[in-house]
Amino acid sequence: MPNNIECSRFAVTRILILFFITSWFCCAASDAIEHGSSEQTRASVVPIGVVLDLDSPLGTMADVCMEMAVSDFYAAHPNYSTRLRLHTKNAKSVLEANFAVLELLQHEEVYGIVGPQDSIEETFFAELGEKVHMPMISFTARTSTLSYKEDRYFVRATPDDAIQAQALATICQGFGWHEVVVLYEDTAYGNQFLSYMNNAFQEVEIRLAYMIAFPRSAEDSHLLQELDKLRTKQTRVFIVHMNPYLGFRLFNVAKQVGVMSEGFAWIITDSLSNFVNSMDSVTRDSMQGVLGTKPYISRSKDLESFQERWERNMILKNTTTPLMKLNAYGLWAYDAVTALAIAIENIAPLNSTLFDINVTRNGKDKRLRISTFGPQFLDELSRTKFRGLSGDFELVDGKLKQPAFQIFNVIGNGEKSVGYWTQDRGITKELNSTGTTMYSTSTKELKSITWPGDSVIRPKGWAIPATGKLRVGIPWKHGFTEFVDVIIDPATKHTNANGFSIDIFLATLELLPFPINYEFFHYNDTKNIDWSYDDMLHEIPQKFDMVVGDTTIWAPRAAYVDFSLPYSESGVILVVKNKKSFDMWIFVKPLRWDLWLAIIVACFLMGIVLHILEHRVTSKGTDSLSTNKERPRMVYWSPVAVLAFPEKQLHISASRLMTYSSAEDYHNAMSLGSKNKGIDAIFDEIPYMKLFLNKYDSQYKMVGPTYRTGFGFAFPRGSPLVSHFSKAIMDVTQGPNMTSIEQENFGPGYSSQDPLSSTISQQTSSLTLYDFAGLFLIIGSVTVFALFCSETVIGRTVTEKAENFISNCLHSKTSQGNSMENASVDDGDLGQGIEDEEIHEAVQDNVSNSREDTDVRVVGEVELHEIGPSIAQNLRMRTESIEDRNS
């Protein structure tokens, strides 16, 4: 009993103490309220409109964050002269959001609007803001088709998705993936992000193999159908960009389909990454091993304190909306309101004038009252900088300055940070690391990653389709079946093939580092002779995963397919008949008759001029040519010099080109010749022509030049199989079995590994002696005639008479000219001239009559070498006669 009384007394004491404490807090709160009210009465109230979907988790979260932003800001700055007052409108649809904005402008006379929540509403908000000169600040717009120069009043307090696309491209490049699949939401927001992705991935040469758009209201059956199609494709890298409601359902279906297993890689953008902490356990289990990117938000004491208070306020908020955990969108909303408060305070005092404008919407005119300080408000907002909960707040071109992106891995019940990406340094393990400042694309900088299927092995990014068979396209054609010969089983309709190209393909499969099951699919089943390889290659990758055949590696085709290294020698060559031409006068055909006539006349004129010049007597009595035997040589070599300059250019009209498809057709056409509606030459690739020559031996020959090309296997652009097949092809073509493969398909004696010079005959492609037999016949005739004139009695006699005749003619003309021009010359000079001339004539008349050696004598100014006694005696007698006449 006493114990009970003591307990009662203790309880009463505690109640009294609690009563006094509560009374004191109430008084303090009352004083604070009165003080705050007095401060508010002195401060200018600035109305700010807010448009949210308060029935959505995101709208509820953002609403609480913005209310706390106003409360926290003025609690930290109680002496500020302005106070923001938020006027929040609930809008569940696009139409309601548009009407809510008009109502805020018309009735609330707001100075700015925060919103919209949905990207679909951006265009109307931007147009209205530009018209009424009022800032519209969004905390959700990540990708926008709006132009900053044209829509300056639409401000995005969020980073740009174009930068995130660059981060994704760098990550895929670092992992060595050459093609990816993009799954995105079919909205303007999703389509614009796809455009960013396409540009960023093109810069790093990564192909977007498939781009699949899903409507917002897509059913699970539609998701299942599309994912099942992707399961049969080679590409194993998927990038997901869609809202959380659609994206989380996509992963649940993906696990059912079986594409969340080992060998697959999944990457999510921050449209999903920001909501990973709010997903349920079922979705979290289906997303194990997913890689994600999101703007990096550093942890701080202020952020932790805010998160605790925000969670308490969310619990106190009486709402039936499913609760969402705090994420980046809530922090951006908080910082956006803080930025508005700072900008308004910097403008104070507010001396604005209201004026009315008319805005037409849905055929109705709305009268709005607008403040004149909108442009000033926008400029101040653009200059506002501060440290917010999401990081540094700074607007650049109407959007938030780009932050670093965090790369994380979904593991267990949460997410694990594996690295970061920045515009300046690329991929880094830590943001504050002091390593190299060079841009890095190496994923070695990342921490360990667990991939789907609990695998720690990096996915290759591609695999043989789930059907287990590689679709190999082969051409069905008429000729040159030694390369590819399609065989159709009449019972099963199963396609098979053999030939050189097929044997090379089978040999490369044995050397690949992984097994491949394949199935042949023929092209041109109608055996149309007008089919083309280009049409066949355009069926990649829709019908074929690769094409095997005698497919030429050609630059224009590289625009839509990738080729392996060539498995045959490269080159396009000309083949002609291997026969001798019996026309010994073929060398005259390049020049027309009038040109030949001009050359002959020129040669005769040259001979006459040389003959005239050599008979002139210089002061030393020397000829322009060394001997008489050299005179005709200058004449008959002149046409040879002329022949070295002409070059014949080949221009063939399309009407003279014929198309054939087999070696037999070539042979028959060449046998007929062009005069009998056949052909005279074949222009085709070296492998075909070597096979053709191997069949018909020496009947034909190759002639140059060679135009480089080759045969290779074709793959889709960016296919990872290209490098593996190229390496295997090198091993096959340089291996010991290549010759046996060639001879098995083309016959003995064929080898593509022989040097090209051994196949293209240098002798047959060059001119022979017989081709210039006519020219040498002319040269020989002139030479014999020259010898006849100089070495025979008859020839010398004829030559002397001709020379005497020409000399007399020249002498008479020269004497007449000298007598007219030198009438005043004295007799002594004239006698000396006659003396020299007679001595010269004496030497000329007798030099050919003697071959006996004698001594050298000097007579006057003439030096005679090796003259005989008879010549000397005759010369002496003439000299004495001249001396007597002069005396």
Rg, rounded, reads 50 Å
Fourth CATH level, the homologous superfamily of the domain at 44-158 and 303-400? Response regulator
Helix run count: 27
How many angstroms separate the termini? 193 Å
**Residue share in helix:** 40-55%
Q: Which band does the percent of strand residues land in?
A: 15-25%
Count of distinct strands: 30
Tell me briefly what this model is:
This protein is an alpha/beta fold and 887 residues long. The strands form 9 sheets. The chain has an 8-stranded mixed β-sheet with strand order 7-6-8-9-10-16-17-18. It is a multi-pass membrane protein.
Structural overview:
This is Glutamate receptor. Belongs to the glutamate-gated ion channel (TC 1.A.10.1) family. It comes from Sesamum radiatum (Black benniseed). Keywords: Glycoprotein, Ion channel, Ion transport, Ligand-gated ion channel, Membrane, Receptor, Signal, Transmembrane, Transmembrane helix, Transport. GO terms for molecular function: ligand-gated monoatomic ion channel activity. It is a single chain. Mean pLDDT is 77; it is low at 1-13, 15-41, 617-651, 753-765, 823-840 and 842-869. Helix 26 (827-846) packs antiparallel against helix 27. The chain contains 27 helices and 30 strands. Strands 7-6-8-9-10-16-17-18 form an eight-stranded mixed β-sheet. Strands 2-1-3-4-5 form a five-stranded parallel β-sheet. Strands 13-14-15 form a three-stranded antiparallel β-sheet. It is elongated and about 150 Å long. It has 887 residues and is an alpha/beta fold. Among the domains are: 1-42; 44-158 and 303-400, Rossmann fold (3-Layer(aba) Sandwich); 161-297 and 403-445, Response regulator (Rossmann fold, 3-Layer(aba) Sandwich), CATH 3.40.50; 591-643, no CATH class; 792-824; 828-887, no CATH class.
